[in-house]
Design goal:
This protein is of the alpha+beta class. The chain has one domain: L-amino peptidase D-ALA esterase/amidase. Helix content is 25%, strand content 23%. The protein has 8 helices and 16 strands. Strands 3, 4, 9, 10, 11, 12, 13 and 14 form an 8-stranded mixed β-sheet that branches. Strand 9 and strand 10 form a beta hairpin. It starts with a helix and ends in a 9-residue tail after the last helix.
C-alpha cells in the first residue's frame, strides 16, 4: 500500500509543471545603482551577524500578510543592546518602541515588521520571546521595536491574523545568507507605486581606504509616487503613477527602511545615517504623501559598541567614527536604499486578495524602458 501511494505521488510529481523561474533582482537585469560596490550577497546580511527571518501568511481569499524579523546579532539583545536610532520622514504610522530608542540610543530586541493592526499582537509575542530568554528571568521592562505598513488592500487587515507562533517562527528562523525578497513576510500584501511591493534588500561596501565598512538595507515597500528607476521615468512610461488621474490619495501607504552597519557608530550618527535613507527613497520617485508613514531604523552591529547590561556602556571606551568619516556611509545608505526598493518590486509577484489583483511590475516592458534611457549595463541573467 505504501509503495502504491509512493508511486502515485512520484507520478503526480512528474506530471506537475516545473515551478516558474524566480523573478530577477535589479543587478541580474544589468541595473547597477550608484558608484559603490555591493557586498557579496547584496543584502543586509552582508553585515556580520545580522539575520533575517520571514513568516508568510496566505490563507483563503483574504489573508495576505506576515512578519519579517531583522536580528542584529545572535545573542541576548537585552543583555547586549546595540546602538540604534529611528528617523521619521513622515509620522503617519505605528512604530512601537521608537521613542525609547531615540531617547536612549539603544535597541534591545529584534526589529519586527508587520501590518498595521498586527503591531500590538506582534509586540506582545516579542515580549514573550525576550522574557523567556535565559538571563532575563528578573527583567521587568523591555522595549519591543515593531514597525508596520498597511496591507489592507490585499489583506483582511481587520482580522489581525498574525499569532504568537508566527512571530516566534520569524525570529527563530532568522538566518544569515541570502534574503528572500518580494511578496514574503511583512511584504506579502503590500503595494508600491501601484504595483506589487514587498521586501527588498541591498548593501554597499566602502573601499579599504575609507574603512571598508559595510552598510546593509532592508525595506518593506507599501508607498506611492512616480516610479523612477535609475533616473528613467518608468511609472510615466507604464501609465501608472501618482496624480495621473488627479486621485490625491494614491500615494498613501508607508515604507520601513532598516539599516545595519558594522561601522562603530553611536546613536547620534546612526540617526544621521537613517535620515539619508529618505534621499534613497526620493531617487525612486517616492511622494512622501500625507498618509504614508516613512521611517528608517538604523543600528550598528559592531561587537565593539554593544551596550552590555553588566558592564555599562561600551561606548565610553570604544573609538567611534568621527563626523568627518560619515559622508561615504551616507552615500552607501542612499544607494542601498534605492536598490532595495527596486529589488522589492522586481522580485514581487502578482497577488490577488480580497477580490483585488495587484500586478507585479512588468519585467519585459520595464527593461525596454530602461534600455531606451540607457540605464542598463550587461544583464547577468
Amino acid at each position: 500500500m505504501i509503495r502504491g501511494r509512493l508511486a502515485a505521488a512520484v507520478g503526480c510529481a512528474i506530471l506537475m509543471a516545473a515551478p516558474p523561474e524566480p523573478r530577477p533582482r535589479a543587478r541580474e537585469l544589468g541595473l547597477v545603482v550608484g558608484v559603490l560596490p555591493a557586498g557579496p550577497l547584496n543584502a543586509i546580511t552582508d553585515v556580520g551577524g545580522v539575520a533575517v527571518g520571514h513568516t508568510t501568511l496566505i490563507r483563503g481569499e483574504a489573508i495576505r500578510t506576515g512578519v519579517t524579523a531583522v536580528v542584529p546579532h545572535g545573542g541576548n539583545l537585552f543583555r547586549e543592546k546595540v546602538p540604534g536610532a529611528v528617523f521619521v520622514g513622515n509620522g503617519f504610522g505605528k512604530l512601537a518602541g521608537s521613542t525609547q530608542v531615540n531617547e536612549l540610543g539603544e535597541i534591545e530586541t529584534p526589529i519586527l515588521l508587520t501590518s498595521t493592526l498586527n503591531v500590538p499582537r506582534v509586540a506582545d509575542a516579542l515580549l514573550d520571546y525576550m522574557l523567556a530568554l535565559p538571563g532575563n528571568e528578573e527583567v521587568r521592562s523591555i522595549n519591543p521595536l515593531v514597525a508596520e505598513t498597511n496591507d489592507g488592500g490585499l489583506n483582511d487587515i481587520r482580522s489581525r491574523p498574525v499569532g504568537g507562533e508566527d512571530v516566534l517562527t520569524a525570529i527563530r528562523g532568522a538566518r544569515g545568507g541570502a534574503v528572500e525578497e518580494g511578496a514574503v513576510g511583512a511584504g506579502t500584501g503590500t503595494v508600491a507605486f501601484g504595483f506589487k511591493g514587498g521586501v527588498g534588500t541591498s548593501s554597499r561596501r566602502l573601499p579599504a581606504a575609507l574603512g571598508g565598512w559595510t552598510v546593509g538595507v532592508l525595506v518593506q515597500t507599501n508607498f506611492g509616487g512616480v516610479l523612477t528607476i535609475g533616473g528613467a521615468p518608468v511609472g510615466r512610461a507604464l501609465g501608472r503613477y501618482y496624480l495621473k488621474d488627479q486621485l490625491g490619495d494614491a500615494a498613501d501607504g508607508s515604507v520601513i527602511v532598516v539599516i545595519a552597519t558594522d561601522a562603530p557608530l553611536e546613536a547620534r550618527n546612526l540617526r544621521r545615517l537613517a535620515a539619508r535613507a529618505m534621499l534613497g527613497l526620493a531617487r525612486t520617485g517616492a511622494a512622501a504623501s500625507n498618509g504614508s508613514g516613512d521611517y528608517a531604523i538604523a543600528f550598528s552591529a559592531s561587537p565593539d559598541v554593544r551596550i552590555r547590561a553588566e558592564a555599562g556602556s561600551a561606548l565610553r571606551t570604544v573609538k567611534l567614527l568621527p563626523n568627518d568619516a560619515m559622508s561615504p556611509l551616507f552615500l552607501a545608505v542612499i544607494e542601498a536604499t534605492e536598490e532595495a526598493v527596486y529589488n522589492s518590486l522586481f522580485r514581487a509577484t502578482t497577488m490577488t486578495g480580497r477580490g483585488r489583483t495587484v500586478e507585479a511590475l512588468p519585467i519585459d516592458r520595464t527593461v525596454e524602458i530602461l534600455r531606451r534611457h540607457g540605464v542598463l549595463g550587461e544583464s547577468k541573467r
